[in-house]
Amino acid sequence: MAIILAKGGEINLTKAAAALTQYKFGLSWDKDADLDAVAILLGEDGKILPPDDGHISYYGNCTKNKFKNPENPVAGLVHSGDARNGAAEGDDETITIDTTKVSDKVKAILLAVTSYSDGDAVPFAAAAAPVAKLYNDKDQALFEIKLDENAAFSTCVEFIKLARTAEGWVVTNLTNPIGASNKNGLTDLLAAYQ
């Protein structure tokens, strides 16, 4: 069962589970939208570390995309690839995070969900049962949010921030819709952190 962590609440998972260094960000939905799992790596200033392509894990920057990248371009993160219709059983898109392989320059990992459309913006409320989850290394859900309830009219939501501290990795539940409900929520997300 997932931990109930109020918006803005945080927990030091390194202290709660000392051996935990791997997480999985899962995103599922059933139909009527093209949702995307995104992770951006932030520096000391809270902005995306340069170069962007080495610090943003999303459908266009992974080994399983249409460009067939020969290796994972973001150290410590592996994106499962782009799912466009929510047809998979379980999670449609995932990003696996190994904190032992993340560069020391990275001070935080922001996990977000965006919606993409070739036409008009498609908010999370238009998707059937959209859910974002953070799992531990045993595939047990630690946190989850229902996007149609918590960010219904948005096309981008900041889900979880994993922040590196002297005591280890601290997880904060952000559940924060951002941007102007752009037809590509990734645009709003990147604008907020560049």
TrEMBL record:
- Give the signal sequence positions: none
Superkingdom is: Bacteria
The residue ranges of the TerD domain are 1-193
Q: Which CDD domains match?
A: TerD_like (cd06974)
Query: Coiled coil where?
Result: none
Annotated InterPro entries: Stress/Tellurium_Resist, TerD
Checking Pfam families in the record gives:
TerD
The family annotation for this protein states: Belongs to the CAPAB/TerDEXZ family.
Q: What is this protein called?
A: TerD family protein
Query: To which species is this protein native?
Result: Herbiconiux daphne
